[in-house]
Amino acid sequence: MLGVIRNKNLLRPSFSAFRHLSSSAKQMTVRDALNSALDEEMSADPKVFLMGEEVGEYQGAYKISKGLLEKYGPERVLDTPITEAGFTGIGVGAAYYGLKPVVEFMTFNFSMQAIDHIINSAAKSNYMSAGQINVPIVFRGPNGAAAGVGAQHSHCYASWYGSCPGLKVLAPYSSEDARGLLKAAIRDPDPVVFLENELLYGESFPVSAEVLDSSFCLPIGKAKIEREGKDVTITAFSKMVGFALKAAETLEKEGISAEVINLRSIRPLDRATINASVRKTNRLVTVEEGFPQHGVGAEICASVIEESFGYLDAPVERIAGADVPMPYAANLERLAVPQIEDIVRAAKRACHRSVPMAATA
Amino acid sequence: MSMNTMIRKSTTILTYFKSNYNNFFSTSTRRKPNLTNHHPRRFNSTTSPNPIHDQVIDFPGGNLKFIPQMTFLSESQQHRVPCYRVLDDNGEPIFGTDFVQVSEDFAVKMYNNMVALQTMDTIFYEAQRQGRISFYVTTNGEEAINIASAAALSMNDVIFPQYREQGVLLWRGFTLQEFANQCFSNKFDNGKGRQMPAHYGSNKHNYMNVASTVATQIPHAVGAAYSLKMDKKDACAVTYFGDGGSSEGDFHAGLNFAAVMEAPVIFICRNNGWAISTPTSDQFRSDGIVVKGQAYGVRSIRVDGNDALAIYSAVQAARQMAVSEERPILIEALTYRVGHHSTSDDSTKYRPANEIEWWRLSRDPVARFRKWIERNGWWNDMAESELRNSLRQQLLQTIQVAESVEKPPLADMFSDVYDVPPSNLHEQEKRLKETVKKHPHVYPTNISI
Prior knowledge:
Chain B: Heterotetramer of alpha and beta chains. Chain B: Residues 113-408 form the Dehydrogenase E1 component domain. Chain B: Its cofactor is thiamine diphosphate. Chain B: Residues 28-52 are annotated as: Disordered. The structure holds 2 protein chains of 2 kinds. Chain A has 14 helices and 14 strands. By secondary structure, chain A is of the alpha/beta class. Chain A folds into 2 domains: 2-212, Thiamin diphosphate (ThDP)-binding fold, Pyr/PP domains (Rossmann fold, 3-Layer(aba) Sandwich), CATH 3.40.50.970; 224-360, 3-Layer(aba) Sandwich (Rossmann fold). The longest helix of chain A has 15 residues, at 30-44. By secondary structure, chain B is of the alpha/beta class. In chain B, 43% of the residues lie in helices and 9% in strands. Chain B has 14 helices and 9 strands. In chain B, a hairpin with a 2-residue loop joins strand 6 (274-275) and strand 7. In chain B, helix 2 packs across helix 3 (143-152) and helix 5 (176-183) crosses helix 12. Chains A and B meet through helix 1, helix 4 and helix 5 of A and helix 1, helix 6 and helix 7 of B.
């Protein structure tokens, strides 16, 4: 299946919107959603500016900043030298002193070269300065597995950034999420890590007139119930929300009603929504592409055990990426990231429709 | 970068190169050989139609000449970059020196601040040795860099310090009591007791918080300078760091970005010879820091860091160029760290005690500046002893006060993590308060709820 995605990705010009013309509702790609959110916030606030490698003349490695250089000029759409630590530090300094930078990483893997500025400088300065220095900055770019790009382009950093107080961490799935959350991130006075997904950029989603309105914004820290259900709760974020929804369709055919929660916000984590859902369904499957140890699923599991232990009718099932750096070969890569069938199987185990994992070990 | 991006990117580069390549050849074929000006050399081919030194390459970044000699650039310049100074070791102006004049009042104010800084460092250092505070760093030997650079700047200029520049904050009006409150992390500390002693910061004084992470302040200063430039403010950003800090990637990234972004920023390197126990010979093999500026396209100067007038003049000129020409300037101030790195080390374990003594006695920047103001008839022994006694009394008083003030309240633990506290922090604070109230006997009594 990932092979198919990869082919599609290579053949499709990544800068053109991929639209489902057959649908009657207005459709928008995640790429256009991000682009329009940036455009509107830059237009609304002259303090907002975009910086990173290739964001200007080249229009962004993934064309997220298409047209922005032409519209806002080179002072607000800055092509930087190739030093993540440099432009991230400069972004943080600009945020200390009145600007609202949006820093683009070509992939979040490369943010590792700049993590000192994200963690030690951006996340801690408001606290360390006793509120004298706030850091209104957004770090954004593709995160997690793409297709066929190996270990140093495929790592999911949600749990890394999610573990650090002072940061807010968002992970959009749909075009509605992308628009609403990016606008919220730019308007927020705190530093926000905004984790996009390369494979979702070209995906189209229906969008309402409300979502398209320039005032549209989503609350940070609130999850969205994408699909209501009563038998099992599935939590997911980013691309895995789509997988969870597909798994829910399969499960429905077999008589299992799954509730799918799109986390949207990794930090703050919407523990209330997750726990309320588990108290209703009594079963939980967490899904993420990142590694299992100390992962987002581990944190959700801990939260449910702390707050809703008595409501659980089955052990929590955790679906995550394999505990290895991402292999390149397509056959191995497919095995290293969660698949829809994995989610279906886990949900069935949780619902006692198949042998529990422990019994097979 | 995805596969498709990489493929597209390399195509663009190839096209770009091709067009330049073609330009280059069309230019060079059009050029006629100038044989009359051609001096025959041993390895020149007499049949060559184009003398090679007449050819230029139209390369991105500008035209370059070709030469027939295979010449490697030397790893060092023949002569070390000289050091600008105004006053000699006896505080006498050097003949023909080029410096900014200062008035009597201003010179005396500078001297007062240098002595205040020296005294504050002594008293706070002693307080640490007595176990009253946990940590301290002195500026001993670097008082001139601290005070004279601060005196040359405008209050609108934003300071991004390392951790040995408390004199800049002192010059800007942070009171001795405010310094003491921070070191004792009491409830009046403007940082709410969140940072180690000597990690000051004050928005009011345009002085960013001291970061323990070495050199991160350098790119931050460039970012702030960019912000000042965008707002068209008549100000620059100023960042300080040591010789050790210049080895961090952030130093190199900061200089490169500042040059490319044409940011009004002054980089002040206090090259004091030692990064904790590492001497500069183990830190770099270049001629110090100053030569690195040119490699990044940044105008640079080397200054005697123990000469207050030289520092004052150089920083004022640097500020003028940075602000009016929107450009970065690098200043390498040569000095010596007379104190230990911090209260956590004993520097006599890694460097000779007589080396320290020589710098302390013969090269003291405070004494040198005093000689100059005395020579001008602006200072005398009586003024000196009055000033030192009064500062000592004031400082002893401030630490007594700071010590007796309550520590920060419990609420200060949870505020400012975010602009608006999220629900989980509210919940934690509430639960903690309830627990403390319920079991007061197991909690320390020095926390007000």
